[in-house]
Amino acid sequence: MVSLECCLPVAQLKAQTAEALSGLKRVALDWPATERNSADLRDRVVRKLKANKSVEIVAQAVQADAVLHGTATIWVSGYAASSPRSKNAQRAMYKGFASMEATGKDGKVLWSYLATPRPVGWKIITDDLADQLVHEFLDALAGKGIGESVSTASYSAAKSGAKAIVALRGAGSTFSAPINQKWFESFTRMRPDTQIEYAPVGSSEGVHRILAGQVDFGATDMPLSKNELSQAKGHLLQIATTVGAVVPVYNVPGAAEGLNFTPEVLAGIFLGKIQRWNAPEIRAINKHAQLPDEAIEVIHRSDGSGTTFVWTDYLSKASAEWRAGPGAGITVKWPVGRGAEHNDGVALAVRATFDSIGYVEFLYALQYKLNFAAVRNASGDFVKADLDSVTAAAKIAAVPEHDDFGVSITNAGGAHVYPIASLTWLLVPEEDRDAAKTAALRDLLRWILTSGQKQCEGLGYAPLPKEFANRELQALSALH
After folding, report:
1. d(CA 222, CA 328)
2. What is the Cα–Cα distance from 17 to 11, expressed in whole angstroms?
3. Do residues 168 and 196 lie in contact, with contact meaning Cβ atoms separated by under 8 Å?
4. pLDDT digits (tens, 9 = 90+) for 422-443
5. CA gap 288, 194 in Å, rounded
6. Predicted local distance difference test score (pLDDT) of residue 2
7. How far apart are CA 250 and CA 254, in angstroms?
8. What b/e sequence results for 241-267 when a residue is b if at least 16 CB atoms lie within 10 Å of its CB, and e otherwise?
9. How many helices and strands (H and E) does the chain possess?
10. What is the DSSP secondary-structure string of 347-368?
11. Average pLDDT along the chain
């Protein structure tokens, strides 16, 4: 998996690709896969590369001109009847993503691509993702991997100065980093005159940088107030881009799947008042589970985090005890536990620690193959995060009458509404001295709110309600 902590400019990557891959003849594959779907995808990539014969696959990296590193995260999103005549025969439906990158002999990244499922025409997700990865890689080898519907000549013209390349720098949320990475890559492939560099450093740092004028846009999972938006060098426009979920993840031997949590139990654990896994409060809502008599190891974010805001915003709405104590915020005073940086830091810490519990954005739970619990919503229903329940949460987001899109949707009710869901936002200056950057940002946001919404589901996010996105498209006229 290409690390989400890096921020290699996509346009720079393409420039490297055209030059560094031109003489590549032999590749070695580095794709460790213990999960069946990932192994199947890897095997399909190998077969497609061998069938094309553009490159030779060798066994050892020392024999290769480059190494192809790959990984995949694929999960069951639901079930459908395999036959209209049979109500019982069902086939699994899958969502997921796969990434592949090529590194040279010096370890430098020469090329990378993140693939998500195409909407129609592919019955087998692994074949779809493998086809995309191989197609993009072979196009890059041939010098054609410059952009969708954009010729190599037009890219060369842009590179030579016929059309100046606009460089955009952003920073912020790790919650939305996976979908941001996909969006920015897709957009710059269609717009080779635009380069986007994004640093997933957490919402707090992203907000700090955009307010200080250090970046061209920020990303946050905690909405800013009107007063905070006006503190920037030029008023900021806050645009919601997608809907994601935060899930409680746990590593409890013997209680692998299917735990339930109420907000009172979650608050009690993170307040340090519920200290053992077999506490009566946990057993009362998990009578089916084998809960050990072990101390609960609490793991939380140590950096300023929008994921923390979503988590604590939910607890503050649903638990009076939490609201009167730590409250909601990007950072809070944690009564117990140890901290880890970023979503992937918490995920790794939980995976490495028996009897632990933490919270991460939904995709990170899937990526790191962590158990995550169902949570009781405002209607009293225990709901587990999946694409349907997050989409149901997205639908409750009321369309603002004015240009205030910083609404909270946590602790919503409904039969299938996941309660720890949140919009995530991009922050952009309404005015910029650089007209080219302003135009590029406006075009990027328009694309995200239209075509880009189709890419949300492949990465475990929910698209915005159409009416909400249309209202934001109207507000983009403020950018000038």
Report:
1. 10
2. 10
3. yes
4. 999 999 998 767 889 999 999 9
5. 54
6. 35
7. 12
8. bbbbbbbbbbbbeebeeebbbbbbbbb
9. 16, 17
10. HHHHHHSTTEEEEEEHHHHHHT
11. 85
CA 13 to CA 31: how far, in whole Å?
A: 21
Report which secondary-structure segment, H or E, holds 126: helix 125-141
φ/ψ of 215, rounded to 5, equals -135, 170
264 token code pair: 């009172």
Element (DSSP H or E) covering residue 89: strand 86-103
DSSP string covering 292-335, please? -S-B-EEEEE-S--HHHHHHHHHHHHH-HHHHHTT-SSSS---S
What is the token pair recorded at 76?
């069951």
3-state secondary structure of 71: strand
Tokens of 188: 């710059």
Rounded CA gap, 343 and 351, in Å? 12
CA distance 463 to 444: 16
- Each residue's pLDDT tens digit, 310-342: 999 999 999 999 999 999 999 999 999 999 999
Q: What is the spatial distance between Cα 336 and Cα 311, in angstroms, rounded to a whole number?
A: 16
| Burial of residue 60, with CB atoms counted within 10 A of its CB: 0-12 exposed, 13-18 middle, 19 or more buried | exposed
Among 289, 259, 237, 296, CA closest to 444: 237
Q: Which helix (H) or strand (E) holds 187?
A: helix 177-190
> Residue 106: CB partners within 8 Å, gap ≥ 6?
none
**pLDDT grade, residue 195 (50/70/90)?**
very high
3-state secondary structure of 476: helix
Strand bridging mode 217-220 / 166-172: parallel
Pairing relation of β-strands 109-115 and 86-103?
antiparallel
Distance (Å, rounded) from C-alpha 334 to C-alpha 356?
A: 16
Q: Report the candidate in 176, 394, 468, 172 with the shortest Cα–Cα distance to residue 386.
A: 394
Query: Within 13 A of 114's CA, how many CA atoms are on the CB side?
Result: 22
Phi-psi group of 411: left, alpha or beta (phi > 0 → left; psi -120 to 50 → alpha; rest → beta): left
**CA nearest 99: which of 182, 195, 40?**
182
Residue from 374, 371, 377 nearest 358 by CA: 371
138 sits in which H/E element: helix 125-141
Instruction: Give how far Cα 458 sits from Cα of 37, 77, 139, 454, 461, Å.
Output: 15, 10, 23, 8, 7
C-alpha closest to that of 132 among 143, 142, 145, 150:
145
